[in-house]
Amino acid sequence: xxxxxxxxxxxxxxxxxxxxxxxxxxxxxxxxxxxxxxxxxxxxxxxxxxxxxxxxxxxxxxxxxxxxxxxxxxxxxxxxxxxxxxxxxxxxxxx
Length: 95
Prior knowledge:
The protein is mainly alpha-helical. It contains 4 helices and 2 strands; from the N terminus they run E-H-H-E-H-H. The N and C termini lie far apart (32 Å).
């Protein structure tokens, strides 16, 4: 997203969820969870469907949105939705 010349549509909530899901799935708490790409993406999709989107088209707007979303209350809610999604996917993997 850095050094962009053309405007690009980005969901900042998705960027944050992607990073947190990757981090969580490789933590000791979820060692037994399937780490295939499909399960990881399924967790992201379920979590993102419960969270508000924050779309932007410029680096400045992205940085501002990131700062706005990246506060303890929001991260706590995002983590809650990710954990909920992990439990859903672990009960019924789609493969």
